Structure formats: C-alpha cells, structure tokens
Amino acid sequence: MQDRLKEKEERLLQVLASLAEQTGKGIPIVVEGKNDVETLKMLGIEGITISAKTGGKSLLDVVSEVEKLGVQEAILLFDFDRRGREWTKRVKLHLEKVGITPNLTFWSELLILVGRDVKDIEGLASYVETLKSKIRNS
Questions:
Q1: What is the pLDDT of residue 1?
Q2: Residue 107 — pLDDT band, cuts 50, 70, 90?
Q3: Angstrom distance (rounded) from CA 20 to CA 12
Q4: H or E stretch covering 103
Q5: SS3 letters for 30-59?
Q6: Which residues, in sequence order, are CB contacts of 20 under 8 Å at separation 6+?
Q7: Cβ-contact 80, 113 below 8 angstroms
Q8: What's the domain count of the chain?
Q9: pLDDT-based confidence at 84, cuts 50/70/90?
Q10: Residue 70 per-residue DSSP state
Q11: Parent domain of 130
Q12: Which of 12, 13, 17, 64 is most buried, by the most CB atoms less than 10 A from its CB?
C-alpha cells in the first residue's frame, strides 16, 4: 500500500511541477474562485491566474479576460464536481470560438489521480499533505 501511495504522490507532484512550469511560460490558468488561486500559490504555482467566479463575472467576461492577455492557450482548472465539469465544458467551447486553445490536460490528470478523494482545486494542498502524512506513518 505504501508503494502505491508513494507512486501517487510522485505522480501528483510531477503534474503540479509541470503545471508550474507551464504557468512560468506565461500560460494563464482559469480557476473557479479566490481560494483556488491561493491553493495554487501554496503549491508553488505562480503566474497569471484568472478567477472565474469572483466579482460577479459572467462566462463571457472570463473568456474576454483571457482574450485580452493575447495568449494562444489557457489552462482550465475548475473543480471536479458536476458544476466544475459544466464550467469546464462551457469555457472550453467559448475559448475555442475565439481561437484560444483550452488546455484540459492538467485537469484530466488531476481528476484521474485524486478524483474520488478531492472534489475541488481548493482541496489539493491539504490532499498533498495528507498523502505525505500517510506515507510517513505507514
């Protein structure tokens, strides 16, 4: 069991390191709220982060905000619940319409790794800590 946990932790840390690398290149991340932004910072992921559900933004406001950055790609990192999946689908479609490539790779990889255990991006930092604790104690 410990080997499986270590493998999961390594894979999760690889995904987060790769995400940090991409944001370091100037690719923005679109998340749901302020707490998601804070969680990403705690995980060492800096860069341009757009919070979709703050300040009464509409879906089109979010797409417009990404468009104003003049980027060709944006990473979508909404929650893993039903509403997060819906937002992912809708923002993806709207970004494609304006010629911006939505990157869902990180969302998909994280969903596979933590799907049952974490329902939102906000929970990632505590999940990583819990995983480390389980490995230490086993």
A1: 65
A2: very high
A3: 12
A4: strand 101-103
A5: EECCHHHHHHHHHCCCCCCEEECCCCCCCH
A6: 43, 44, 45, 46, 47
A7: no
A8: 1
A9: very high
A10: T
A11: 2-137
A12: 12
Q: What angle do CA 54, 55, 60 make, to 5 degrees?
A: 80
pTM score, whole prediction: 0.93
Euclidean distance between the first and the last CA atom of the chain, given in angstroms as a whole number: 9
- Whether residue 71 is predicted with pLDDT greater than 80 in this model: the reply is yes
How many angstroms separate the CA atoms of 120 and 113, rounded? 13
H helix runs in the chain, sequence order: 2-24, 34-42, 59-68, 82-97, 105-114, 124-137
Residue 40 exposed, middle or buried by CB count within 10 Å (0-12, 13-18, 19+):
buried
Band the pLDDT of 4: cuts 50, 70, 90. Answer: confident
Q: Which two tokens stand for residue 87?
A: 């937002």
